[in-house]
Design a protein that fits this description.
The protein is an alpha+beta fold. It is built from 7 helices and 10 strands. The strands form 2 sheets. Strands 1-10-9-6-7 form a 5-stranded antiparallel beta sheet, covered by helices on one side. It holds the Pfam family PP2C_2.
Protein backbone atom coordinates (compact mmCIF):
# COMPACT_ATOMS: atom_id res chain seq x y z
CA UNK A 1 0.00 0.00 0.00
CA UNK A 2 1.31 3.45 -0.98
CA UNK A 3 0.28 6.58 0.94
CA UNK A 4 1.26 10.08 -0.21
CA UNK A 5 0.40 13.27 1.67
CA UNK A 6 0.79 16.93 0.71
CA UNK A 7 -0.38 19.90 2.76
CA UNK A 8 0.25 23.62 2.72
CA UNK A 9 -1.26 26.72 4.33
CA UNK A 10 -3.38 29.18 2.41
CA UNK A 11 -0.52 31.67 2.44
CA UNK A 12 3.15 31.05 3.27
CA UNK A 13 4.15 31.75 6.83
CA UNK A 14 0.76 31.34 8.47
CA UNK A 15 -0.53 28.38 10.47
CA UNK A 16 -1.84 25.45 8.48
CA UNK A 17 -5.14 24.48 10.13
CA UNK A 18 -5.36 21.17 8.23
CA UNK A 19 -3.98 17.89 9.59
CA UNK A 20 -3.38 14.57 7.88
CA UNK A 21 -1.64 11.38 8.96
CA UNK A 22 -1.51 7.68 8.18
CA UNK A 23 -0.71 4.46 9.98
CA UNK A 24 -0.79 0.88 8.69
CA UNK A 25 -4.27 0.33 7.33
CA UNK A 26 -5.55 3.76 8.37
CA UNK A 27 -5.59 7.38 7.16
CA UNK A 28 -7.18 10.51 8.61
CA UNK A 29 -7.62 14.10 7.45
CA UNK A 30 -9.00 17.05 9.42
CA UNK A 31 -9.68 20.59 8.22
CA UNK A 32 -9.85 23.12 11.03
CA UNK A 33 -12.52 25.79 10.64
CA UNK A 34 -10.73 29.13 10.52
CA UNK A 35 -12.01 31.89 12.80
CA UNK A 36 -12.27 35.32 11.13
CA UNK A 37 -10.62 38.31 12.75
CA UNK A 38 -13.01 39.95 15.19
CA UNK A 39 -14.67 36.72 16.30
CA UNK A 40 -13.94 35.24 19.72
CA UNK A 41 -13.81 31.49 20.33
CA UNK A 42 -13.79 31.21 24.10
CA UNK A 43 -10.64 29.12 23.74
CA UNK A 44 -7.00 29.99 24.36
CA UNK A 45 -5.88 27.41 21.79
CA UNK A 46 -5.65 27.88 18.06
CA UNK A 47 -7.67 26.07 15.43
CA UNK A 48 -4.43 24.47 14.23
CA UNK A 49 -3.84 23.11 17.76
CA UNK A 50 -7.34 21.67 17.82
CA UNK A 51 -7.06 19.94 14.43
CA UNK A 52 -3.63 18.48 15.18
CA UNK A 53 -4.55 17.32 18.67
CA UNK A 54 -7.85 15.76 17.64
CA UNK A 55 -6.27 14.20 14.56
CA UNK A 56 -3.45 12.58 16.50
CA UNK A 57 -5.82 11.19 19.11
CA UNK A 58 -8.19 9.90 16.44
CA UNK A 59 -5.35 8.11 14.67
CA UNK A 60 -4.46 6.35 17.93
CA UNK A 61 -8.06 5.48 18.84
CA UNK A 62 -8.91 4.16 15.38
CA UNK A 63 -5.97 1.73 15.35
CA UNK A 64 -8.03 -0.52 17.64
CA UNK A 65 -10.13 -2.61 15.22
CA UNK A 66 -12.67 -3.32 17.96
CA UNK A 67 -13.62 0.37 18.05
CA UNK A 68 -15.83 1.76 15.29
CA UNK A 69 -14.61 4.89 13.54
CA UNK A 70 -17.53 6.86 14.99
CA UNK A 71 -16.77 5.66 18.53
CA UNK A 72 -13.08 6.46 17.99
CA UNK A 73 -13.99 10.00 16.97
CA UNK A 74 -16.35 10.47 19.92
CA UNK A 75 -13.67 9.26 22.35
CA UNK A 76 -11.09 11.57 20.76
CA UNK A 77 -13.39 14.59 21.11
CA UNK A 78 -13.88 13.73 24.78
CA UNK A 79 -10.13 13.46 25.29
CA UNK A 80 -9.49 16.84 23.66
CA UNK A 81 -12.19 18.35 25.86
CA UNK A 82 -10.40 17.02 28.93
CA UNK A 83 -7.14 18.62 27.78
CA UNK A 84 -8.50 22.17 27.84
CA UNK A 85 -11.79 22.27 29.74
CA UNK A 86 -9.99 23.81 32.74
CA UNK A 87 -8.68 26.74 30.69
CA UNK A 88 -11.31 27.29 28.00
CA UNK A 89 -15.06 27.83 27.72
CA UNK A 90 -16.25 24.70 25.94
CA UNK A 91 -19.81 26.01 25.87
CA UNK A 92 -18.82 28.96 23.69
CA UNK A 93 -20.50 28.70 20.26
CA UNK A 94 -17.26 29.63 18.52
CA UNK A 95 -15.09 26.86 20.06
CA UNK A 96 -12.51 25.50 17.59
CA UNK A 97 -13.85 22.83 15.25
CA UNK A 98 -12.76 20.65 12.35
CA UNK A 99 -14.06 18.42 9.60
CA UNK A 100 -13.02 14.77 9.74
CA UNK A 101 -12.36 12.10 7.13
CA UNK A 102 -11.09 8.66 8.13
CA UNK A 103 -10.61 5.41 6.19
CA UNK A 104 -9.53 2.07 7.63
CA UNK A 105 -8.94 -1.44 6.35
CA UNK A 106 -11.00 -3.91 8.37
CA UNK A 107 -10.50 -7.45 7.13
CA UNK A 108 -11.74 -7.59 3.55
CA UNK A 109 -13.53 -4.22 3.69
CA UNK A 110 -12.59 -0.56 3.65
CA UNK A 111 -14.45 1.45 6.30
CA UNK A 112 -15.01 5.19 6.03
CA UNK A 113 -16.22 8.12 8.11
CA UNK A 114 -16.90 11.64 6.81
CA UNK A 115 -18.05 14.52 9.01
CA UNK A 116 -18.64 17.98 7.48
CA UNK A 117 -17.42 19.21 4.12
CA UNK A 118 -14.07 17.57 3.47
CA UNK A 119 -14.18 15.00 0.67
CA UNK A 120 -13.48 11.29 0.34
CA UNK A 121 -13.15 9.82 -3.14
CA UNK A 122 -13.12 6.06 -3.71
CA UNK A 123 -11.46 4.96 -6.95
CA UNK A 124 -13.57 1.88 -7.61
CA UNK A 125 -12.49 -0.99 -9.84
CA UNK A 126 -16.00 -1.76 -11.12
CA UNK A 127 -17.73 1.64 -11.23
CA UNK A 128 -17.21 5.38 -11.47
CA UNK A 129 -15.52 7.11 -8.52
CA UNK A 130 -17.68 7.41 -5.42
CA UNK A 131 -17.49 10.91 -3.93
CA UNK A 132 -18.55 11.16 -0.29
CA UNK A 133 -18.99 14.56 1.37
CA UNK A 134 -21.37 15.81 4.01
CA UNK A 135 -23.46 18.56 2.37
CA UNK A 136 -25.38 19.77 5.43
CA UNK A 137 -23.17 22.85 5.80
CA UNK A 138 -23.83 23.74 2.17
CA UNK A 139 -27.55 23.41 2.86
CA UNK A 140 -27.35 25.82 5.79
CA UNK A 141 -25.32 28.30 3.73
CA UNK A 142 -27.87 28.13 0.92
CA UNK A 143 -30.55 29.19 3.39
CA UNK A 144 -28.44 31.93 5.01
CA UNK A 145 -26.80 33.58 2.03
CA UNK A 146 -28.79 36.32 0.38
CA UNK A 147 -29.29 36.74 -3.36
CA UNK A 148 -26.81 39.62 -3.64
CA UNK A 149 -23.40 39.01 -5.15
CA UNK A 150 -20.60 38.31 -2.71
CA UNK A 151 -18.27 41.32 -2.23
CA UNK A 152 -14.88 41.10 -3.99
CA UNK A 153 -12.24 39.04 -2.23
CA UNK A 154 -9.82 41.13 -0.19
CA UNK A 155 -12.25 44.03 0.28
CA UNK A 156 -13.40 45.36 3.65
CA UNK A 157 -16.94 44.51 2.60
CA UNK A 158 -15.97 40.89 2.02
CA UNK A 159 -14.31 40.63 5.45
CA UNK A 160 -17.47 41.98 7.07
CA UNK A 161 -19.59 39.57 5.03
CA UNK A 162 -17.50 36.58 6.17
CA UNK A 163 -17.61 37.66 9.81
CA UNK A 164 -21.38 38.01 9.76
CA UNK A 165 -21.71 34.69 7.96
CA UNK A 166 -19.67 32.77 10.57
CA UNK A 167 -21.66 34.35 13.39
CA UNK A 168 -24.86 33.12 11.77
CA UNK A 169 -23.38 29.65 11.23
CA UNK A 170 -22.59 29.32 14.94
CA UNK A 171 -26.34 29.24 15.59
CA UNK A 172 -26.67 26.16 13.36
CA UNK A 173 -23.53 24.23 14.29
CA UNK A 174 -24.00 20.81 15.92
CA UNK A 175 -27.75 21.21 16.11
CA UNK A 176 -30.58 19.19 14.56
CA UNK A 177 -31.54 20.72 11.25
CA UNK A 178 -28.15 22.42 11.00
CA UNK A 179 -24.74 20.91 10.31
CA UNK A 180 -22.36 18.77 12.35
CA UNK A 181 -18.63 19.10 12.86
CA UNK A 182 -16.04 17.88 15.36
CA UNK A 183 -15.81 20.39 18.21
CA UNK A 184 -16.79 19.95 21.86
CA UNK A 185 -19.79 17.60 21.51
CA UNK A 186 -18.81 13.91 21.24
CA UNK A 187 -22.29 13.07 19.96
CA UNK A 188 -21.41 14.85 16.70
CA UNK A 189 -19.57 11.64 15.78
CA UNK A 190 -22.93 9.85 15.60
CA UNK A 191 -23.91 12.24 12.80
CA UNK A 192 -20.97 11.33 10.57
CA UNK A 193 -21.49 9.58 7.24
CA UNK A 194 -20.15 6.05 7.68
CA UNK A 195 -20.02 2.88 5.64
CA UNK A 196 -17.77 0.24 4.14
CA UNK A 197 -16.85 -1.13 0.72
CA UNK A 198 -15.33 -4.49 -0.26
CA UNK A 199 -11.59 -3.94 -0.35
CA UNK A 200 -11.19 -5.68 -3.69
CA UNK A 201 -13.54 -3.11 -5.28
CA UNK A 202 -11.38 -0.11 -4.32
CA UNK A 203 -8.23 0.67 -6.25
CA UNK A 204 -7.29 3.78 -4.26
CA UNK A 205 -8.77 6.50 -2.04
CA UNK A 206 -8.26 10.26 -1.89
CA UNK A 207 -8.90 12.30 1.25
CA UNK A 208 -9.22 16.01 0.46
CA UNK A 209 -9.76 19.14 2.50
CA UNK A 210 -12.11 21.54 0.72
CA UNK A 211 -9.09 23.67 -0.13
CA UNK A 212 -7.66 20.77 -2.18
CA UNK A 213 -10.90 19.57 -3.78
CA UNK A 214 -11.52 22.98 -5.41
CA UNK A 215 -10.30 22.06 -8.91
CA UNK A 216 -13.05 19.44 -9.12
CA UNK A 217 -15.99 20.58 -7.02
CA UNK A 218 -15.72 24.38 -7.19
CA UNK A 219 -13.61 25.36 -10.19
CA UNK A 220 -14.74 22.60 -12.58
CA UNK A 221 -11.25 22.22 -13.98
CA UNK A 222 -10.97 18.48 -13.26
CA UNK A 223 -13.48 15.65 -13.23
CA UNK A 224 -13.17 13.24 -10.34
CA UNK A 225 -11.55 10.60 -12.62
CA UNK A 226 -9.13 13.32 -13.79
CA UNK A 227 -8.27 14.19 -10.19
CA UNK A 228 -7.64 10.55 -9.27
CA UNK A 229 -5.45 10.06 -12.35
CA UNK A 230 -3.46 13.17 -11.45
CA UNK A 231 -2.93 11.92 -7.90
CA UNK A 232 -1.85 8.49 -9.12
CA UNK A 233 0.58 9.79 -11.73
CA UNK A 234 1.98 12.96 -10.16
CA UNK A 235 1.03 12.80 -6.49
CA UNK A 236 -0.87 15.18 -4.22
CA UNK A 237 1.75 17.94 -4.39
CA UNK A 238 0.91 18.47 -8.05
CA UNK A 239 -2.80 18.75 -7.20
CA UNK A 240 -1.98 21.52 -4.74
CA UNK A 241 0.17 23.27 -7.35
CA UNK A 242 -2.68 23.26 -9.86
CA UNK A 243 -5.07 24.48 -7.16
CA UNK A 244 -2.83 27.44 -6.35
CA UNK A 245 -2.36 28.26 -10.04
CA UNK A 246 -6.12 28.42 -10.49
CA UNK A 247 -6.60 30.58 -7.38
CA UNK A 248 -3.88 33.01 -8.44
CA UNK A 249 -5.54 33.37 -11.87
CA UNK A 250 -8.71 34.64 -10.16
CA UNK A 251 -7.51 36.71 -7.17
CA UNK A 252 -10.74 38.66 -6.62
CA UNK A 253 -13.12 35.71 -6.99
CA UNK A 254 -14.77 36.99 -10.16
CA UNK A 255 -14.63 33.67 -12.03
CA UNK A 256 -15.05 31.44 -8.98
CA UNK A 257 -16.86 33.16 -6.09
CA UNK A 258 -15.56 31.77 -2.81
CA UNK A 259 -15.08 32.63 0.84
CA UNK A 260 -11.28 32.71 0.68
CA UNK A 261 -8.95 33.53 -2.19
CA UNK A 262 -6.79 30.61 -1.07
CA UNK A 263 -7.46 28.03 1.62
CA UNK A 264 -5.32 25.56 3.51
CA UNK A 265 -5.07 22.59 1.17
CA UNK A 266 -4.36 18.97 2.06
CA UNK A 267 -4.57 15.82 -0.03
CA UNK A 268 -3.94 12.20 0.94
CA UNK A 269 -3.66 9.58 -1.80
CA UNK A 270 -3.70 5.96 -0.73
CA UNK A 271 -3.13 3.34 -3.42
CA UNK A 272 -4.46 0.14 -1.90
CA UNK A 273 -3.17 -2.45 -4.32
CA UNK A 274 0.28 -1.31 -5.49
Amino acid sequence: MRVLIASEPATPGRDNEDFAAAAPGLAVLLDGAGIPAGLESGCSHSVAWYARTLGGLLLAEALDPRTSLADALAASIERVNALHSHTCDLQHPGSPSATVVAVRVAGDRLEHLVLADSVLVLDRTDADPLVISDDRLAGVLARLDGPDERPPLGSAEHAAFQLARVRKLNDHRNRPGGFWVASTRPEAAEQALTGSTPLDRVRAVALLSDGASRPADRFGLLTWPDLLALLDKNGPAELLTQTRDAEHSDPDGTRWPRGKASDDATAVYWALHD
